[in-house]
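Final paragraph of the annual report: two paired records, presented back to back.
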Amino acid sequence: MKLKVLNLDAKSAGEIELKDEIFGLEPRADLIQRVIVWQLAKRRAGTHKTKTRGEVNRTTKKWYRQKGTGSARHGARSAPNFVGGGKAMAPVVRSHEFDLPKKVRAAGLCHALSSKAKDSKLVVLDSASVDAVKTNALGKRLNKLGAA
């Protein structure tokens, strides 16, 4: 597969031959999705936490006597069905990360690159150097390329 090489002024600077083993595959959405879910799961903080009935600051004394009140039997006020009680099945601090085999990661990258090449959304630059380090000038050049 051949692709045009551009410079920062969006002018042609030649052609490059891309390997069909990487850029010529028929994209598989399931592999790409597995890699994306893996990346997003690694990124999650997992710092959510709520107090359970053993962690709330409530008394553990029996609320009222067992029999004779006409109401249901209750123990501590820290039970989840009371206001100020702990949360049942509360979230805990944990890591959401899971393992993904290296071959699946590599295959997902190849299929993502193949998808971009198939949709003609791949841009190859000869060099990304500029004369003056100015954001405005670089932004205009990237707009010409359709990248910004």
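The closing record of the year follows.
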Amino acid sequence: MPGMLWVVAETAPDGRLARISAEVATLARGLAAQAGVPVTGIVVAPPGAASPVAGELAAYLPRVVAVDAPAAATSPVAVVAATAAARLIAGDDAACVLVGASPDGRDVAGFLAAMLGVGVLTNATTVTWDGGPVAEKGVFGGRIVTTSAFASGHGIVTVPLGSVTAEAAPSAGAVEMAAGDAASMAGDELPPAPPVLVVERVVEAAGAVQIEEAKIIVSGGRGMGSAEGFRLADELAAELGGAVAASRAAVDAGWIPYSRQVGQTGKIVKPDVYVALGISGAVQHKVGMQGAGTIVAVNTDPDAPIAEFADLFVVGNLFEIVPALVAELKARKA
């Protein structure tokens, strides 16, 4: 007998429901209807913050449990969220859990898998139901698509941003506060999460657009030459109303923060337009941006790998092409 479907949501830096969680909730609602099982969302946040986010999640799910967790202010949110979720899910022996494949979501999935003793299917770009969740994902840069399921029929599935289009339910669901201290473990029925203390938080500059949320991304690679070269990316992104990102080579060189890295060891993005400046397009970068609606690349190398999958490939010097493009965009706005 299948158990319940659960969605462990996360909060965006602005304090609202993260976009990836709205997408995962939409997917879970469809799977629940297909499987004929109930679905519940879980929101864990510091006191006073959980209820508003749970209200947003209730636009997508029929039932949402909000957990006020004082520890979320001093411990990693992923640890606290996994602990609370494990406490709520523990009585469901056949539970299937969906989590966004964000940095925090991956941590939640790992902690939760250890505490519940279940398996994890990661980065599922497509999830269907056949006696349990069946996950498809691309490997080796999308060259091969694998299909996986749990032998037991239940476990945890992580879903990348952009795999599903978020759609609200016809009517909003109900929000309930968790009874007692669901954010801490009591008893011996579950192993405790490892104690971790946050000693410092570093917040990005106000106004910085999160690349996961951006509809237009201007991304720079080794071809930018230096941190100074990224000023061109900043100017173009400002004219297009987009965000600036980078390949690993640019991040490793110290030209731009890691939070802006796109690729296998960075973030997966799915903007409407992705402009790649001086990026070769190696498979490690491709896996992070290949889902973009339109890919525009500028590179001096006509044989760069990105030419194989870009919608528009411009062979030329980005230090000549980008200023000309910025000037043209400004002229059109005048």
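Residues 216-333 form a domain with the Rossmann fold fold (CATH 3.40.50.1220). This concludes the annual technical report; the extension proposal builds directly on these records.
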